[in-house]
Sequence to fold (127 residues):
Amino acid sequence: MAEVQHKLEIFRGLLKFKSNQTKIWAVLVVLSIVTIIEVALGIVKPKFLLELFLGMKIINWIFILLTFAKAYYITWDFMHMRDEKSGLRNSVVLPLVILVLFLVALLLIEADYIFQVKYNGFLSWDF
Fold:
């Protein structure tokens, strides 16, 4: 059986490596840097990032985006999605995107309901 050769590059060919081991170390460094940025932002919490944007603090949006970036990168590199055909990639990614959007919609609907109940005050029902 022929040996499968994985691509030894990251960032769409911007960095190329001689072996899988050096590539794995580079991926570890990239993911560590993103995690360090997240932790540093969580500790420092700059004032300008605590303003609201689309109903949520900007720092929370940054955390969500960095988390999605890490998840995408882990899937792309460690699960070798880049080496697969587009049909398989789509069959993995599209259901997850649909489920995440559905979950976000449900959470927003529930959060709005709870906000309205607390804002308008609780009214007891007569049974």
About this structure: Strands lie at 9-10, 15-16, 52-53, 56-57.
